[in-house]
Amino acid sequence: MYLRDPGNPRGVLQGHAEEVEYGRGGRRDKRNGDGGGVGWAADHFCPSLHGYGCLTWNMMLDFPQASWNVISSLCQPVVPSEGDNLAPVTLAGVRRGDLHPDAVHPGFPVSLIGDTGGLFIMKLFLLTVAALLLLVVGESTAERILSRRTKRELASPLHVGGIRDPFGSYCERRGGCCPGRDDLCTVPYLDTICYCDLFCNRTVSDCCPDFWGHCLGVEPPFIGTCERNGNKFLSGQTYKENCNLCTCGTTGRWECEQNACLMEPDIINAVNRGNYGWQAANYSQLYGMTLDEGIRFRLGTQRPSRTIMNMNEIQMNMDAQTDSLPLYFNSAEKWPGKIHEPLDQGNCAASWAFSTAAVASDRISIQSMGHMTPQLSPQNLISCDTRNQGGCAGGRIDGAWWYLRRRGVVTDDCYPYRPPQQTPAEVGRCMMQSRSVGRGKRQATQRCPNTDNYHNNIYQSTPPYRLSSNEKEIMKEIMDNGPVQAIMEVHEDFFVYKNGIYKHTDVSFTKPPQYRKHGTHSIRITGWGEERNFDGTSKKYWIAANSWGKNWGENGYFRIARGDNECEIETFVIGVWGRITMEDMHNHHHHHRRRHN
């Protein structure tokens, strides 16, 4: 087919197409229509809406007098600049044979690129025929249609960087604006892009700074700009300050959320300036979270029920041994290679599973005299212990011990931890089942989720026992049998602990109530010690392992005041024995040797 425009003074070229695709949902239809065409302009156009259907095309036109870039757009008229000298245009080489005059006219908004300086046959490349058919009755109808398209799927909003040149030339430098919605109508802007299409006006955040003045000829919808770190922001633009989102208001002032942040600089500075006996730090892995999110996602142990709290405490015969307890004791030094390193629960409220698995791992290693040193799997508990448990939304340690006793778990290497992405936290399908093989013992019925590991032995415990809240009895239990599990209350300042002997401070007492919150956590106590003060007094402390990774605290551990039930850490303390027989140790030792030979 041959299309020709012998020199229309307004540069209008009539083109025709049959197949129409409208919207982004992929529905195709064939319709007839008339009107429309190509509006030529050297730099920019003013959009308006009229009652006809249209197509959107992407193409490049080369012809003797000039080279034109065709912009993909909704078909809306383009008013050429005064004084433009538009050359006669002939379109040839159309590849589609089904084009005919009674189909819908396509619109070709274009912008002048420059003089080509040569004579050659103009080529028409249809890179995309992405058609958008708008059947509109008038301007108000079109406005209603466009108003339903309120979100750009692939938009890259102007965020955080600020407006360094709020009144610079972006759409003007581009050489043209685009009517309707065109996700290719962009200009590089800082480390992102901004838009020069009419749709950007639906969300102020992704328009180029000069869109309103250059493309629409109107004043911008914002009154002023906001400044931050030497950068200017337009009204409606945002940046995030720690855990709070700040928005540039129409008055030129920042409007910020007032959340209490997990990493609160005022609290960190107050602790470090005060004489509290410990130091605080700003942790990058916790920065940007609110205090509410930290308590919700970084703890995860539910307080025991009244029935569990009334468990009988075991009776210890302390007699003269009480005086023989050393000033300092560390399980890792008494049982080298048998005390496991702290893990990181991430944003998964499952300290109930991490502390249980850690204590059981240490106790089995000690009890087996090192023949069995499993790092038991918290994920096995999180995914499979679902009876009245919440996985990454919190759980009870008594439920965890029930599961470890009655069902058992495999190692962390066999069933590795899968931290939840961003928002916690799917429990995940249980991928490890077991069956009874008699005498209370269990055997795995599935292979390891980690297919590189074939060692799917099930490890179990005996019923846990509760210790007295007397610090001497807790110390003796740790020295004789290994680390214990404890429940504690975590306050807002504990998250920023770096080193020293922790005690809850009053640094947030002058702040609003949302800065003073606490939640229940469970940890593993591995030892104790004393620190002498300059005045001759001493500070007693527990050595405890957290589950926030080795980059937190003292290599994943913390020290906390001992003997006065700081943060209720001595209220509910648990010990346990592994379910181990000589046959288990023999089989494990034989299997271990076979794997390494």
TrEMBL record:
Biased composition (Basic and acidic residues): 16-26
Positions of region (Disordered): 1-31
Residue ranges annotated for the SMB domain, each copy included: 173-221
InterPro entries: Pacifastin_dom_sf, Papain-like_cys_pep_sf, Pept_asp_AS, Pept_his_AS, Peptidase_C1A, Peptidase_C1A_C, Somatomedin_B_dom
GO CC term, one of those recorded: extracellular region
Transmembrane annotation, as ranges: none
Protein name from the UniProt record: SMB domain-containing protein
Native species: Etheostoma spectabile (orangethroat darter)
